[in-house]
Specification:
homodimer, 42% helix, EC 2.4.2.29 (chains A, B), transferase (chains A, B), glycosyltransferase (chains A, B)
């Protein structure tokens, strides 16, 4: 089953609170989804991810398609069982990764031929193959196979690509077998061209998907442009369906996304920068490897009650990074995921209390954003 | 405080059960001590190590001496606080690591000058410096600074080295300031020469340490020789003090150690082979990366109730190793430590029930040891 309920709406902006119900549990929105690319949220056990308050994770069809492959996931009884995660999962379509292999792929109307980033072997993904793989994965939310066009790109390229993405969305919908257990989302493209975004959104809404994603944003364009296109696009998406902004995970982009009507977002950012030793804190980012933390026996973030901040000092975490200990990556990953999940919790509450803008402005002031 | 109580003795061999009491808690012996070289048991949180039943961990003075250094540990309030571990800690003296740098060190009566394995900087450790560092670390059991001689080595080298180790032991004891909180163990050396082992043991027993280690074994000599020298040596150690065999962590060596009167042992083996994908199971070792586990959806060990075996399949763990995910190292580390700690629990019970030899023989038969 799949259900979206709109529970509260800000009076100041497009921010909204809702609830998604799936076979693997409910998701309070707006939500940030930690990424478990290869059937694991890097460095973490599923129990830890759950304890941090994650209600849904994202996993990547492209990576799982190559390793361990469809056959093994099928025999394991699906992705939930394989990786020991019993809450909702969203899988992407593989499109983003395939199109990132810019010089190693060939697009036709049928699909995309590409060379594996692992062994160079020739592979092919079409809308049907992507949905078939996602049906096998058994994820609660699956994504239509789309092209995430690069930025900048000329209008005719974007138009051509966006129209094909809409045709592919239709093929995905027709092929999708498991509609009672897995909700298929369409993905709006159209680059930075508003009229193309409008055409894209309308064509997908005509197909009546249970949810919609905004793709092709946060791909290198200026923030103002991203916000402008996002704000324009969400106006064309139905109020009674969830909206997902793909690939966004910095605190400011999450605030902007919510302000302009987004319910879901994902990004590798918090976990990736964690492994490089960067912690998100209520006072901005800190690079824990810096010498100034050598004898700093305070926690990463004074305002944080995560496991890491309750038990370890900056000096200890810096030591762990200095000697390349795996616990270092774990501790900062825990902290960063807690930070974002807790932020989203605060955002949800602020919308219910109808003081989202105040909450946002206070956060920006403390975090050091100049807005 | 430091107290050893002998609680039970096998009627068949020298195996014994005891209890060590320290300021940070009690230790039921015989015990295996997981190694936390650089103030962390690799890949694990302290809570996880505790949950597995570890009663004491070992940490390495040499590594902590170089990074983060004495000053930072001192300011942190000692090693327990620095690393968030509130149970007993044993630290080695640094001797083993310094003497492993065979071409980068110069031994004098005063101590050892060596070049750091990290940056090549010139460093010096003497018995006094080692004890001073261990006093700062605040570990519950500290070790005298010794030379662990190589195998094979000629008699005159071993004799000379062993005599110096005894002189250093005396200096360690004289320098040791914190005797009410930290128990200093002497280390018997003497290579494979029984008469030298006897001299070493007697000279240390004369100094009346609260516990004794057997060093310089399991350094490449045949197993029979190791057992013979160990059996000979423990006869010269007092019944009312704990005995620690350094650097032993394979199941067979642990059984042999206990059979010949050892109470404590440590080794990086279980955690190191875990990170290379080798799991210890009741049916012997398995190399999880092997292709034959690709579609094996059973746990690492059918007879195991650890977190890993309760929740994950061999196929999933193999996938994690294939794609170099950190969770792979964590899951097999948890399993291997559980395996050894659980084995020691079984050994303790078998001694109390006075059926140690039966327990050992059954284990060897299942594990595939040819004895």
């Amino acid at each position: 089953m799949f259900k979206y309920e709109l529970l509260a709406h800000s009076s100041e902006c497009k921010a909204r609170v809702g609830r998604i119900t799936t076979d693997h549990g409910t998701i309070e929105t707006p939500i940030f989804m930690p990424v478990g690319t290869r059937a694991t949220v890097k460095t973490m056990t599923p129990e830890e991810v759950k304890e941090l308050g994650a209600q849904i994770i994202l996993s990547n069809t492209y990576h799982l398609f190559l390793r361990p492959g469809k056959d093994i996931i099928n025999k394991a009884g699906g992705l939930h069982k394989f990786m020991n995660w019993d809450k909702p999962i969203l899988t992407d379509s593989g499109g983003f990764q395939v199109f990132s292999l810019s010089k190693r792929r060939k697009i036709t109307e049928e699909g995309v031929e590409f060379r594996s980033h692992i062994d160079g072997s020739k592979q092919f993904i079409s809308p049907e193959i992507s949905i078939d793989m996602q049906n096998t994965l058994g994820s609660d939310i699956i994504m239509a196979f789309d092209e995430c066009a690069p930025y900048p790109a000329n209008r005719s390229y974007i138009e051509h690509s966006m129209m094909r993405t809409s045709r592919w969305a239709k093929r995905c919908k027709e092929f999708h077998k498991n509609t009672d257990k897995q909700a298929l989302f369409g993905i709006v493209q159209g680059g930075m061209y508003k009229d193309l975004r409008e055409i894209s959104a309308k064509s997908l809404v005509d197909l009546d998907f249970p949810g919609y994603a905004v793709g092709g944003l946060s791909v290198g364009e200026p923030e103002d442009l991203m916000i402008d296109v996002l704000n324009f696009t969400t106006d064309y998406l139905p109020e009674n369906k969830p909206r997902y902004l793909m690939g966004v995970g910095s605190p400011d982009y999450l605030f902007e996304a919510v302000q302009y009507g987004i319910d879901m977002a994902d990004c590798v950012l918090p976990t990736r920068i964690a492994r490089n030793g960067t912690a998100m804190t209520s006072k901005g980012k800190i690079v824990i490897k810096n010498a100034k933390y050598k004898e700093d026996f305070t926690p990463l973030d004074h305002d944080c009650d995560c496991y890491t901040c309750k038990n370890y000092s900056r000096a200890y975490i810096r030591h762990l990074f200095n000697v390349n200990e795996i616990l270092a990556y774990r501790l900062v990953t825990i902290h960063n995921l807690h930070f974002l999940l807790n932020l989203m919790k605060g955002i949800r509450k602020s919308i219910i209390d109808d003081r989202f803008m105040e909450f946002k402005n206070n956060f920006y002031k403390n975090y050091g954003y100049e807005k």
